[in-house]
Amino acid sequence: MVINIEYTTTRYIRTSKLGNEHVYFRKKTIVTLRCDKCGLIFKRDKGSIAPDRLTNRYYHVCSNCDAKRFAQEKGVESRKIWDMPVSSLKKLGEL
Ligand SMILES: [Zn+2]
Q1: For residue 95, what pLDDT band results from cuts at 50, 70 and 90?
Q2: Which of 1, 11, 18, 56 could disulfide-pair with 34, CB 3.0 to 4.6 Å?
Q3: Which residues have CB less than 5 Å away from ligand 1 (the ion)?
Q4: pLDDT band at residue 78, thresholds of 50, 70 and 90?
Q5: What is the predicted pLDDT for the residue at 82?
Q6: Residue 61 φ/ψ, nearest 5 degrees
Q7: pLDDT tens digits for 2-40?
Q8: How far is the CA of 22 from the centre of ligand 1 (A)?
């Protein structure tokens, strides 16, 4: 789950071939996310996330959790819903 997008500026100094020091800045966009498995809040560079995945239509999993196992669990949940008979009296939350 995307919580926040923030920007950080980093200051760098490079030395030119004549020995002069030049200061330059680089902006970085950092996305704050909440793990959809364990609820941990973690940060990630925007550059390392595919642009399509920056919405809450996708799940986000932290580095401590197993993303593939999480995806399998979601598949099982979906399959339970698809396999339900239309006449079932169960609510979706009870599965
Ligand atoms: Zn997690």
Answers
A1: low
A2: 1
A3: 35, 37-38, 40, 62, 65
A4: confident
A5: 87
A6: -125, 135
A7: 999 999 999 999 999 999 999 999 999 999 999 999 999
A8: 41
Cα(2) to centroid(ligand 1), Å? 14
Please give the Cα distance from 95 to 85 (Å, whole number): 13
Residue 91 is predicted with a pLDDT of 79
Residues 2 and 84: their CA atoms lie apart, in Å, by: 31
Q: 77 CA to middle of ligand 1, Å? A: 18
State in Å: Cα 67 to ligand 1 middle: 9
Whole-number Å distance between alpha carbons of 59 and 72: 12
